[in-house]
């Protein structure tokens, strides 16, 4: 399987959505103050889609991404990723979903500065228990896929911002996830590097990878096939 091939699903799965959210709410209580970042969200995300989530600051975007990323559970409602019920899953099952099925990309790249590009990508494979040869092959393949085969031994400080984000994308795709979740992936990049990263994300999506991107940047949203807006905990489809 090459990096761009989508995760192999059971034969009856391709027609069902990748994510299903039914009446999902999230409530935080801090010092008796109650915050409701998500209120009764109903949403389905199709396999292979490229979805952006926009909206005002504090509107609940990061909270939604955390739920989709199996980093947290809803306070109420149903949330499934394929056949996995993320709302009811144990901590171990959430950890397994994060390790195997979900790739993450962040605004600040989140690379380890003392490790080389290869070693950073390899970190993402640690929980999978692969044989050394398979691990090395996946790291090399992922770096080649993002156009950084010749930078494998460079540390983040020796790479441009765009190259660092490409290493972070290689780390995310090396595990061959079902979905890539990105939180402002171009927020720290200038315009030319932004376009470079968008081209790469678009190519991954063309290869079948589902993308869900939180962004304030309308240039990112223009690339998406589906645009959502999250405001005051409520989601709206603004695709035109
Ligand atoms: N762990 C937490 N505990 C308490 N309140 C939280 C927590 N996480 C988020 N919130 C609150 O939930 C609301 C939504 O926050 P969230 O980070 O999801 O918004 P956002 O749309 O991602 O904003 P931004 O664009 O600024 O990143 C905010 O009022 C925030 O203060």
User: Major beta sheet, specifics?
Assistant: 6 strands, mixed
Percentage of residues in helical conformation = 25-40%
| CATH fold-level label | Rossmann fold
Number of domains: 1
Basic shape: globular
- With strands numbered from the N-terminus, the spatial order across the biggest sheet is 6-7-8-3-9-10
The CATH fourth-level homologous superfamily:
P-loop containing nucleotide triphosphate hydrolases
Strand content: 25-35%
Tally of separate helices:
7
H-E string: EEEHEEHEHHHEHEHEE
Poorly predicted runs of 5 or more residues: none
Ligand roster = adenosine-5'-triphosphate
Number of strands: 10
Q: What is the CATH architecture annotation? A: 3-Layer(aba) Sandwich
Protein structure class:
alpha/beta
Average pLDDT for all residues: 92
CATH class placement: Alpha Beta
**For the CA atoms, what is the radius of gyration?**
18 Å
For the record, give the distance between the C-alpha atoms at the N and C termini, rounded to a whole number: 35 Å
Keywords: ATP-binding, Nucleotide-binding, Transport
Domain ABC transporter: 19-238
Protein name: ABC transporter ATP-binding protein
GO molecular function: ATP binding; ATP hydrolysis activity; transmembrane transporter activity
What would you say this structure looks like, in words?
Keywords: ATP-binding, Nucleotide-binding, Transport. This is ABC transporter ATP-binding protein. Residues 19-238 form the ABC transporter domain. GO terms for molecular function: ATP binding; ATP hydrolysis activity; transmembrane transporter activity. By secondary structure, this protein is of the alpha/beta class. It has a single domain (19-237), classed as P-loop containing nucleotide triphosphate hydrolases (Rossmann fold, 3-Layer(aba) Sandwich), CATH 3.40.50. Helices cover 31% and strands 26% of the residues. The chain has helices spanning 61-68, 91-100, 117-123, 132-145, 161-173, 191-206, 218-223, and strands spanning 19-30, 33-45, 50-54, 76-81, 84-85, 102-106, 179-183, 210-214, 226-231, 234-237. A six-stranded mixed beta sheet has the order 6-7-8-3-9-10, with helices on both faces. The protein has a four-stranded antiparallel beta sheet with strand order 2-1-4-5, covered by helices on one side. A hairpin with a 2-residue loop joins strand 4 (76-81) and strand 5 (84-85). Helix 5 runs parallel beside helix 6. The longest helix is centred in the last third of the chain and has 16 residues, at 191-206. It is globular. The two termini are 35 Å apart. The protein binds adenosine-5'-triphosphate. Adenosine-5'-triphosphate binds at residues 28, 30, 35, 37, 55, 57-63.
């Amino acid at each position: 399987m090459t990096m761009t091939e989508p995760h192999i699903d059971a034969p009856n799965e391709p027609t069902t959505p990748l994510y299903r959210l039914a009446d999902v709410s999230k409530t935080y209580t801090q010092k008796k103050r109650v915050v409701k970042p998500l209120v009764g969200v109903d949403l389905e995300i199709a396999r292979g889609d490229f979805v952006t989530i926009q909206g005002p600051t504090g509107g609940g975007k990061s909270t939604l991404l955390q739920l989709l990323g199996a980093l947290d559970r809803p306070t109420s409602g149903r949330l499934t990723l394929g056949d996995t019920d993320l709302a009811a899953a144990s901590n171990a099952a959430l950890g397994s979903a994060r390790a195997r099925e979900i790739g993450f990309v962040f605004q600040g790249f989140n690379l380890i500065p003392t490790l080389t590009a290869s070693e950073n990508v390899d970190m993402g494979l640690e929980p999978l228990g692969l044989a050394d040869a398979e691990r090395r092959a996946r790291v090399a393949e992922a770096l080649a896929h993002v156009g950084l085969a010749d930078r494998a031994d460079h540390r983040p400080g020796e790479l441009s911002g765009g190259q660092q984000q490409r290493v972070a994308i290689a780390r995310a795709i090396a595990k061959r996830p079902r979905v890539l979740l990105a939180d402002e992936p171009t927020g720290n990049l200038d315009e030319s590097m932004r376009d470079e990263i968008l081209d790469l994300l678009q190519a991954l999506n063309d290869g079948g990878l589902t993308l869900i991107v939180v962004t304030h940047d309308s240039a990112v949203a223009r690339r998406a096939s589906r645009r959502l807006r999250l405001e005051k905990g409520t989601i709206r489809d603004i695709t035109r």
